[in-house]
Amino acid sequence: MADGLIPDTVVFDFTGQDLDGMVASCETDELMPFVRALVPAAGSVLEAGAGSGRWVRALTSLGYAATGIELSAADVERFRAAWPDIPYDHGNVEAMPYADGCFDALLSLGVIEHLFMGPEKAVAEMRRVLKPDGVIFLTVPHGNLSFRLEQVKDALFYRLYGSNRVRRLMGRPAVSYPATLEKQRLEAIRRGRRAGVAIKYRFDPASGIGFYEYRYDTAQIRRLIEQGGFRIEALHLLNAPDRLYQIFGALVGQYDGCSQPRPNRLGRLLARLLPAGWIGHMALVIARPARA
Which domains does the chain have, with CATH numbers? Predict the structure, then answer.
């Protein structure tokens, strides 16, 4: 934690979302064909940073021996209440309670970018618990060309959201945090951030602007994974509708909080015309432990 102002990691709470709908969305997710093709039938699968647990439940229903580990106690509690027979542990991906080399596959989807001090410890743990011939599916948001546009949009909107004059016009309550605290946090982020890696910020009416996640480009994520002891087999750019929705919102589609945004005609046109290198939201790395 930097000066007590920045959490070591961003923790999510999915308990307000439709869990059954999120589980169902896995079947049409762009990741699913890769998992089906590369994970052996009935293989042991760990999702590290499992969030709502949707993939743990979906993979269990397909016959895999799936286990989840998640830092959010609220999400763990809800998952256990829904499916008490499926292993779902409360814990940190940087220090996981599993033996060396015990999983055939590991999923870590949109997790390591939220670790402010960097992903090295988490990647090392993932390498440790994976079998020598196992496979990892890891995704991080891609810091590509469209993210620059997203940053401009965020900067404008966060300035408006933090203005009490604008909030009164919008019928929203005034912000409750001192501007000096927000300024101190932003200075701490600048001092402690990973050099050369893009940052996405978020706005909270209770605390102001703060760190949300890093956005790695493909060269940076390749280097992180390879230095963590993996041999990369493939890298794909996925989920263009997500990135378009983050930038343009309802202009390009609808989002129900469960599956990917459903693009409208404009969204489909942009996704078809623009290169994946510009608008692919998540970089999917498929890798195996490197041989010594």
Answer: 19-143+215-289 (3.40.50.150), 145-213 (no CATH)
